[in-house]
Amino acid sequence: MDIIALMQVLSQCLDRTSLRRLSIIVLAMVTMTGRVTMLGISRWAESGGSYRTIQRFYNSAIPWGMVLWLFFKAHFYQPGTEYLLVGDESVVTKAGKQTHGLDRFFSSIFNKPVAGLAFFALSLVSMEERKSYPLLVEQVIRSEAEKAATKAKKAEKAKKRSKSSKRKGKRGRPKGSKNKDKRQIEWTAELKRVKEMATTLIQRVSPLVRPRYFVLDGHFGNNNVMQMVHQSLSLHLISKLRNDSALYFLYDGPQKPTGRKRIYGAKIQYDNIPAKYLVQTATHDGIQTDIYQATMLHKSFADRINVVIIVKTNLSTQKRAHVVLFSSDLALAYD
What we know:
By secondary structure, the protein is of the alpha+beta class. Helix content is 29%, strand content 28%.
């Protein structure tokens, strides 16, 4: 009965019949074992939860984004708490050929592309509770044009790699090449999808929640996404770079009296990071963790970035590993 009482807040966006069906389905889902299917739900459901009733519920149009927001606002929202806007994609393996949106997507669990369905979710993460509250989920449907563009991009990269390996003669940029404005971004279908979802959620949760940071994984750790987050959403990006990223310290030496000012300093050597950038060190179970922070430059990014490098060293074997995190907020503390 507690579940039914909790769901009364959803009467603002659901009719009586849908609310009753949802209560039956939720009660079955939290008690059942194994994979969740409509047939499984109907077997575990109490009176009024026949297979046909479950089908009718899933065939009805429900504003799930509003359902999640109303439930969060009524039962989980804490005034004065800072929330991060966090996005991530999940891939569910699926056999067959008829399922809507079935395609091959990269799965981090299998570390390769797999046949299945992909869903992009946006959550609000409480900084105090360290909990994630998913508020907007959409299935990723890739159009034929998007697939063709991805294939063409891969072919172009392979062509460039083969050309660079065969290239002989002078080093440096090719003659006649021009500078590009890195703040003018390429609007891919994926970038548009993320921007539209984030805009929808921000408009829905404001003015109650005003997130300052958009957190995305390493797939989105590039200049295109950073410019989109800053220009279109007016947020700061927190993401991850490749562990071999070519980062440069800011140049602070003497400048030439004429010509363009030098901005790039020494290139980072991850095995020998200057000690002046060390902000924290700790040892636990024979693993030493060193954290470095610096404002740095990357030649693919239009602006300076706030970089945090976490280095872990096994003291018995001296093996090292590191990750590179970054933010567009230069004032953000390392922790």
